[in-house]
Amino acid sequence: MKKIIIFCLILAIIFCKCNLLKTEYPNPSKNLITFKLNDNFKTNATLSQLGQVQMQMNLFSQETYFTSPDCVNCQIYGTKEDRPFICNKEEYCVEHLQAIGDVDQYFKANGSVIDMNLILDSIEFYLSRGIYVKWISQQQQGKTYQYQGIGLALTNCVQSTFLRSLYNQAKIENFSYSLYYEVDSYNLIVGGYNQSLLAQEFYNLKSVSERRSDPYRIADDLVFADLYFNEQNILKDAQVLLDPTIDGIILPRKLFDQMNNILLTQRKVPDISAFLPEQPGIWSSLNAVPSFQIQFKLDDPDAYSKYLKVNFDALTFNTKNQRGQFTPRISFVNIIDENNQFYNVVRVGKILFQQMMYFKFIQIEDQTQKTEFRGLAPMIKIQQK
């Protein structure tokens, strides 16, 4: 009997220790708001005199902003289809204070702070501390300015003004969002996640701790991973940015030669069009096309594994053209910082969100107790085109 009691006590101690060590995230909330976004990560909004417009959402900015007719140089970097927004008190829009901020990774704005009524994908709420843009400064060349945008950035230091407005109006219970792609649209769930879609629990991703300058200033959104092409390692400790505005995987240009050598060694070079940095080849048969793997590093101290391996098989990793031929969903770019050093930054887009759910959560009780969680979870099979 004593042996049984001692054994039970040992199990209880181990169980308690695991619960204390495990990185925690909240249970699914009852107050969830789901937004549908297109492939460009835009959603529909109703803006008084403008009627229905598409607003760009951005995971890497905290600002929600609208462009004033007074912004002369906005027309230079925008498009002909863009229209400015007029802030009228009669339509519950109040302009006050001066403001300056990064509206996205590419533009810094000067203007005013505004509070206004907003209907976003049929959800009505009052936005506090938006930016009314009256002048922009370009921070990276060759980029198009979006006239309206919604920032979703969440870190211990930065909280999205959009999410804070929803939280203060009790429309959501915590600062969190989840994201996945289904059929022909992104599903952004603000305030939590849909547990019924998960095949496993969330894995806590290991974040890059060092501060970055241009072009990736928000280091908190970079996570560590190892990359494999046709099951051969091509890069260790890559810094990965999950970016829903792109389709496939954007790789550093320096990886091209290594990947080309793998195809030559394995005798799997394309038979329709050559494998080139500008065009990654065309194959006639799905049986011969390459595959790709990303092995994310985890930050759970008690995890069974230190990695989460995401496999992109031949069907997932390649697109099919009208002739029934296949091309990998990759491209190559040179990314160089201000010290002329190459970044090992890899951008991964829709190809990942089609099979994994991304979840981000922060909780700040005081300045000394902060919880920050960013994770991926495999989803059950959902319909995709």
Describe the fold and architecture.
The structure is a single chain. By secondary structure, the chain is mainly β. It has 2 domains: 33-190, Acid Proteases (Cathepsin D, subunit A, domain 1, Beta Barrel); 198-378, Beta Barrel (Cathepsin D, subunit A, domain 1). The chain is 13% helix and 40% strand. The chain has a 7-stranded mixed β-sheet with strand order 18-17-12-13-22-14-21. Strands 1-10-9-23-24-11 form a 6-stranded antiparallel β-sheet. Strands 2-3-8-4-7-6 form a 6-stranded mixed beta barrel. Strand 9 and strand 10 form a beta hairpin. The longest helix has 20 residues, at 2-21. Mean pLDDT is 86; it is low at 1-22. Residues 1-20 form the signal peptide. Keywords: Signal. This is Transmembrane protein.
* Morphology: globular
Total domains, how many?
Answer: 2
- Strand-pairing-aware structural class: mainly beta
CATH hierarchy, class of the largest domain: Mainly Beta
H/E element sequence: HEEEEHEEEEHEEEEEEHEEEEHEEEEHEE
Beginning-to-end CA distance, first to last residue: 60 Å
Helix content: 10-25%
| Full CATH superfamily name of the largest domain | Acid Proteases
Strand content: 35-45%
Q: What is the makeup of the main sheet?
A: 7 strands, mixed
Enumerate the spans where pLDDT stays under 50 for 5 or more consecutive residues.
1-22
Examine the coordinates and then state which fold CATH places here, giving the name of the CATH topology of the largest domain: Cathepsin D, subunit A, domain 1
Count the DSSP helices.
Answer: 6
CATH architecture of the largest domain: Beta Barrel
Strand order of the largest sheet: 18-17-12-13-22-14-21
User: What is the typical, i.e. mean, pLDDT?
Assistant: 86
What is the tally of beta strands?
A: 24
Write down the Rg: 23 Å
